[in-house]
Amino acid sequence: MSGSGRGAVAALVVSHDGARWLPVVIDALRSQTRAPDHVVAVDTGSRDESADLLDAAFGPVVPAPASTGYPEAVRRGVAELGPEVEWLWLLHDDSTPDAGALEALLAAADEHPEADILGPKLREWPSLRRLLEVGVTISGTGRRETGLERGEYDQGQHDEVRRVLAVNTAGMLVRRRVLEDLGGLDDRLPVFGNDIDLGWRAAAAGHTTLVVPQAVVFHAEAAHRGLRRTALTGRHTHFQERRAALFTLLVNVRSRALPLQVVRLVLGTVLRVLGFLLVRSVGEALDELAALLSLVGSAGDVRRARRERRARATAAPQEVRRLLAPPWLPYRHGLDAVSDLASALTDQAADVAERRRAAAAERDPAAYAARTGTRRAVAEDDDEDVPEDSSFVARFLTDPVAVVLSVVVLALLVATRASLGQAVGGALAPVPDSVGAWWGLHLETWHALGQGTAVPAPAYLLPLALLATLLGGSPGAAVTAVLLLAAPLALWGAWRLLRVAGRLASVRGAPRWLLVWGSVSYALVPLTSGAWGEGRIGPVVTTALLPWAAHAALGFADPVPDRRWRAAWRLGLLLALLTAFTPTAWLVAVLLVAVVVTVVVLVLPGAARDRSTWLPPLTAVAVPLALLAPWWVGSLRRGAAEALLLDPGRLPAAEPSGLQLLAGRLTETGAPGWLGLVLVALALLALVPRTTRAAVLLVWVVALVAVLVALALSLVRLELSVGAAAPGVAAPLAVLVGALVTAVVLGGVGAREVAARPLLVGLGVVAAVVPVLGLGWAVLADDRLGDEPAADVPAYMVQRSELGPEHGILVLRGDVTGGLEHTVRRGDGTTLGEDEVLALSGEDADLTATVRELVSAPTSDTVARLGELGIEHVVLPAPADGDVAAGLDAAGGLVQASAADPGTRAWQVDEPLSTQALESGTSPLHVVLLVLQGVTLVVVLVLCAPTRERRRRR
Prior knowledge:
Layout (H helix, E strand, L loop, with lengths): L7 E8 L6 H9 L7 E7 L5 H9 L3 E3 L5 H10 L5 E8 L2 E3 L3 H11 L3 E10 L6 E3 L3 E2 L5 E2 L16 E2 L9 E3 H6 L12 H11 L3 E12 L17 H16 L5 H21 L3 H15 L2 H14 L4 H5 L7 H18 L5 H12 L1 H13 L14 H6 L2 H16 L19 H9 L17 H10 L4 H31 L6 H12 L1 H4 L8 H17 L7 H21 L2 H20 L7 H17 L1 H9 L20 H5 L10 H13 L7 H22 L3 E3 L2 E3 L4 H25 L2 H24 L14 H7 L6 E8 L3 E7 L8 H7 L4 H12 L3 H9 L2 E6 L5 H9 L3 E4 L7 E5 L14 H21 L10
Parallel strand pairs: 1-2, 1-4, 2-3, 6-12, 15-17
Antiparallel strand pairs: 4-11, 5-12, 6-7, 6-11, 8-9, 10-12, 13-14, 15-16, 17-19, 18-19
């Protein structure tokens, strides 16, 4: 093609191994309604037939080495053109223009004579309808911003000609004079980013860039998507893209904004590296870091490029600034990324059933087709027909399930209203004033509690400390959040678990009303069991987390090995949390894994040889051992092995009977036990439907395992310094109730296919009694937590004790006849997490001997010994024993002190105070275990996170 006269248009095609796209591109060029006057083709060392195709279509091809960048290739093509060419139309070998693309661009140029660069609307090739770009800009973090939603389809919603910062070089129409005045495309951006850089330079020089959506170009983005590899990109496409983005920002940003921009890019790179590591994209994380370091090593190039741009800049800075992305946009992308990650984490097992059916389809297509045909033929009773274009309020109000669940959540919040403010009482000790106390208890080897102890902090203290830190350093806010949100969290988790379980048991899945019944019945367990009212935070948290752990465990049924491993890490993390709050949860998990692995190995041929079948479950139960190592190893070393069987809270705790456990009750303060027995009867009836009997039997196996663990624990007695205690059974109880609820739901799925409608209605009425009465009881029951023991130490002594550990208070309770008990109070008293440490610390022989001598025949040496033990005050709470009080009154070195209660007697130690008895060194092993815990936590978080979708590779 040729032309003459001023105003000629030349199409410039650059190719590199693009033979797969060039035939279509060539046909598209020949089909233009306004044909270009010239066509110049430049080939950069193609190894396929690209050069031959271009030569046959347009004549001699301009050759260039394979290492030639796009800017240099364009420069070589322009050198072949005569002076009559005014407009250059740049095309890639993988960009196909619509037939009217050039005509639309030239028409816009005539209509807008101020425009020097024009670009088309880019749509994805081969989808043809999905939008890629309608003009482009760049954010302050270097992100290429298109203003489009991901996967947005072209429906004419962006068809307005408007000014933009830049347009893609795939289809760009640029005045030859302007391109040459700007120095062409920057050779320091050989592949990516040269279009944004050119547009930014053009805007700074006073030129106008327009996007013309009426012109359409289809772009395959071969280099960006990794569909081909060049000498310039190699295997690290992300490195080249990120380096180009950083370079573009650094060389074009205003001088006074440069220091802040550098700091932002460095910090942003660190965050991006961490983000890529979190989703296990190690290669892209290294590319991010390498891109930044590459620019650090090319500081001279950056300075020269800035000088070049400064020399050509004529426009006001605000004219360019308004074409850049808004400053808040990167933060929105960050929130979107967090939201996507959270969605992937919560929905990771939701499609297990569909993936299993897909795998079954590959094994037996005929049978699968029959089943899916049946599924399509069945009308779902529980799917409401809501118009897609209705508002959120309309959809909500016309969905009875959503309304019911909202009412339930509101009722649960009302039932747990006592947790608002300072939640304390029953088994729940007061929280410390700051989260630093929890961190200190977790990190320290030696604790200044009582007479000092090396018993490690309870395992649940670490997640509580992390939560409190996130909530502004407030331990009270953390405990309130846990108690207030545990039941709604259990409701959500149970819904997700039962929905997937229903899909696994039946193609149709469980009806939504059945899911409502199951999730509400389970969400009430923390309240109806009596755990919430007694302030037992361990059982409350365990009940909330259990359905999420069971949901993660369903990932072991996934046919994809990688997903089974991901399920293992997620279950391991959740199991560690469960074990931290109720240690016996680990025993239940170990027994369940042993049963499941044994059955799988025996039943499935070849399963023993496939490590991805049995090793992920074993890994899941091993993860808590590493994550909780400072706790359980320290407990064994310090002679406090009882901690591995005790639930959190003040000890000793009430011991439920066997019938109470079967009814799902931990204490007598829970809901009426017969409500729980109704659930047991319904779970037994769930065995009747034949279609779901196998699934229900499997759930009953889980329930029996929980019962066996509870029976075994009931045979154990633990001797503590505060008296005998029974092992915690909250975890087996939660598993038992969860299994019973799941059995009823699965039985209901089978029953609706075979049972008569009147029978189903009758069973539904009986079943509704469990959640309806349980919720009513929870709302109307006494909203107070268990009673808090009355303060029996004068307030001024408490204030003195907070000055340091040497200002301890010795509290003597009881009398000589019935026996005296002694405790030492230090700091702000015994707070949450310290109860278990003191109960497991055992008796201090030196203090016991001193107290025995003090109440029998005290001497001045005895009182002096109290000072050496860091005790400043002695208190006999009302009713004080007269004989003991008389002896203390006569003791030298003890000065009578005041007490608000007339029946309470108090004395002050008039001797030097010391902390020597309370001091001890740091255990190197404890430090090592803390490091192991931290490293394991980071590794597990990375491994359990969803992976980033990989780009397609050639």
